[in-house]
Amino acid sequence: MTNTASVLLGSKVSESSPRSDVYALLSSAYSFPDESFYGDAKDGQLAEQLAGALSQLPYRLRTSDLSWKLPDTYDEMQSEYIRLFQIGGRRGPPCPLHAGHYTRDRSRTLQNLIRFYNYFGFRVMECVMPDHLAVQLEFMSELASGGVAEEASSQRAQRDFLQNHLGWTETLWGRVAKAGPHPFYRSLTALTARLIAADQRFNQNVLGGSNDAAS
Predict the structure, then answer these.
(1) Is 1 among the domain residues?
(2) Angle 155-63-130 (CA atoms, 0-180°, nearest 5)?
(3) Nearest to residue 7, comparing CAs of 36, 38, 28, 34?
(4) How do residues 173-202 score in pLDDT, each as one tens digit?
(5) Res. 2: pLDDT tops 80
(6) Does the residue 51 lie in any domain?
(7) Measured in Å, how far apart are the chain's first and last C-alpha atoms?
(8) pLDDT for 176
(9) What pLDDT shows up at residue 7?
């Protein structure tokens, strides 16, 4: 079974829920791929787990992206991750996985994220940047588990975090699409952007007293 390797100190998901599970699985997919992750993705475990969690979400979400094809070898997947997200060309990676690269002031973005994490009792591991997408998705998994705060506070935190800190995933998807990616990463970023948009609408509706949220 694919599990996200925690990058948040203080992680304490106490209950499994479809939304929490989806965020945890996506977090693992944006971390640097190790051979274990590649094996789980290659044999279909990642897609199977995501499909199961996505089918239980409190709203509809298109899941055709889960029919992805993995790179033929682990080395190819590792190289593609590096090309897209870490190094790229002389100007750097075409699709950085750090939120601060999509804002005007990365320092302020980092400070705001650290305050958000600390407020709920979390710290980021050393050598991991607080604005990395894997960290942000793991934090959303924690919030969605319902075990880090009373319900109303957790819902407000999720709404604010989605709106203020994860909206850049749509731009990431667009950049990946233009970078000639392997189908796996094109599908992964498309699914992520669509999830964030749908989950943001869901949380807004919950706080507004409506139970109707669909994508």
Answers:
(1) no
(2) 45
(3) 28
(4) 999 999 999 999 999 999 999 999 999 999
(5) no
(6) yes
(7) 28
(8) 97
(9) 60
Residue 103 lies in a domain: yes
Asked if 94 and 180 touch (Cβ cutoff 8 Å), the reply is no
Whether 202 is covered by a domain: the verdict is yes
Burial of 199 (0-12, 13-18, 19+ CB in 10 A): buried
Distance CA 150, CA 120 (A): 11
Q: Quick check: 159 and 29 in contact, CB under 8 A?
A: no
Q: What pairs with residue 9 in β-bridges?
A: 123
Question: 64 lies in which domain range?
Answer: 15-207
Scanning the structure block, which residue is given the tokens 């989806």?
22
The number of folded domains in the chain is: 1
What CATH number is attached to the domain comprising 56?
1.10.3480.10
* SS3 letters across the chain: CCCCCCCEECCCCCCCCHHHHHHHHHHHHHCCCCHHHHHHHHCCHHHHHHHHHHCCCCCCCCCHHHHCCCCCCHHHHHHHHHHHHHCCECCECCCCCEHHHHCCCHHHHHHHHHHHHHHCCCEECCCCCCCEHHHHHHHHHHHHHCCCCCHHHHHHHHHHHHHHHCCCHHHHHHHHHHCCCCHHHHHHHHHHHHHHHHHHHHHHHHHCCCCCCCC
Residue 13 φ then ψ, to 5°: -55, 120
pLDDT computed for residue 3 by the predictor: 42
Q: Residue with structure tokens 């407020």?
A: 119
Polymer length in residues for the chain: 215
